[in-house]
Design goal:
There is one protein chain. The protein is mainly alpha-helical. It has one domain: Cytochrome Bc1 Complex, Chain D, domain 2. Helices cover 50% and strands 0% of the residues. The chain has twelve helices and no strands. It has helices spanning 2-18, 31-38, 43-57, 77-88, 98-101, 103-106, 109-120, 136-146, 148-151, 171-182, 191-196, 202-213. The protein is globular. 37% of the residues are buried. One heme C is lined by residues 70, 82, 142, 146-147, 149-151, 162-164, 166, 174, 177-178, 188-190, 192-193, 196-197, 208, 212.
Length: 233
């Protein structure tokens, strides 16, 4: 396991060098992330900025069950700020979204603070994409042994530590991210998670993500079925 971890680290370094960026630490802070976290959000501007995002993440922030676009609604604000700042700084590759996320398109750190505060408060999708449920006992065992310490008992994540909420997220999106994190392709990944999951087979990966996709989201965080975002008439 030690060997494969160092191969992954080396591969990530090569990939970062090839793409012309320096390999950044997981969460150095500072930069746009640091600034955005100190700003007071403006809800009206958050609504305006989010209109750009809604072209892909949908007006409700629910993304798509097929995993093309993740659900953003209800995610921890700090996580949203970090991911958006990482995408803008090319610490996380997202060529589809990149041009729409730039300062020229949505504005500076204030726009990041505004839009992430707005998104974090949106009620979540009552119908997230789930796996086929055929190996849940194995998935639960893996989850309890390898994930709880960071993502929490129910996949609730941790706002202070920038650990994403994964409960209610779409199965197909999570599977892609998990694989990219395991294989060193998501460059902003937490190195301790990379180590923790280095020995996961593809079957383990599907089982644990399936289990996560079936964790119920607390009722108070969910929108009613068929909810339409009233901020855009
Ligand atoms: C053209 C489509 C598109 C637009 C417009 C777009 N995104 Fe995205 N976004 C994506 C895709 C695709 C992903 C997932 C990429 C991947 O699989 O790594 C993503 C991922 C994200 C993530 C990471 C989520 C996570 O769980 O880690 C955040 C945060 C995000 N988008 C925020 C925004 C915000 C804020 C805007 C508006 C300023 C926006 N996006 C506009 C396509 C888009
Ligand atoms: C040491 C802490 C840690 C452990 C252990 C860990 N993770 Fe993570 N995980 C993170 C962090 C931090 C991120 C976000 C990385 C970043 O900033 O891009 C993440 C990202 C993810 C994502 C992508 C979420 C998104 O919105 O894009 C998924 C899915 C995930 N983890 C699932 C798991 C599962 C399942 C396990 C157990 C098998 C696990 N993680 C173990 C810390 C951890």
């Amino acid at each position: 396991m030690k060997k494969s971890t160092s191969i992954i680290a080396a591969a990530a370094l090569v990939a970062a060098t090839l793409s012309g960026t320096t390999y950044s630490a997981w969460n150095e802070g500072g930069g746009e992330q640091g600034v955005a976290m100190t700003l007071t959000p403006d809800r009206e501007n958050g609504i305006e900025v989010y209109e750009v995002c809604s072209a892909c993440h949908l007006l409700e922030g629910w993304g798509m069950a097929n995993g093309t676009f993740p659900q953003l609604a209800g995610q921890h604000k700090n996580v949203l700020i970090k991911q958006l700042a990482d995408i803008r700084a090319l610490n996380r590759d997202n060529p589809t979204m990149y041009p729409f996320a730039l300062p020229e398109s949505i504005g500076d750190e204030q726009a990041i603070a505004d839009v992430t505060d707005y998104i974090a408060k949106l009620p979540m999708n009552p119908n997230n994409g789930k796996g086929d449920g055929d190996n849940l006992a194995h998935g639960e065992k893996l989850y309890k042994a390898n994930c709880i310490q960071c993502h929490g008992e129910a996949g609730e994540g941790n706002q202070e530590k920038f650990y994403p909420k994964i409960q209610g997220q779409h199965y197909a999106y999570m599977l892609r991210q998990f694989e990219w994190i395991r294989d060193g392709k998501r460059r902003n990944a937490n190195p301790d998670m990379v180590k923790q999951i280095a020995g996961f087979s593809d079957a383990d990966m599907r089982a644990v993500i399936d289990y996560v996709s079936q964790i119920p989201v607390p009722k108070e965080d969910l929108a009613p079925v068929g909810w339409i975002n009233p901020d855009y008439d």
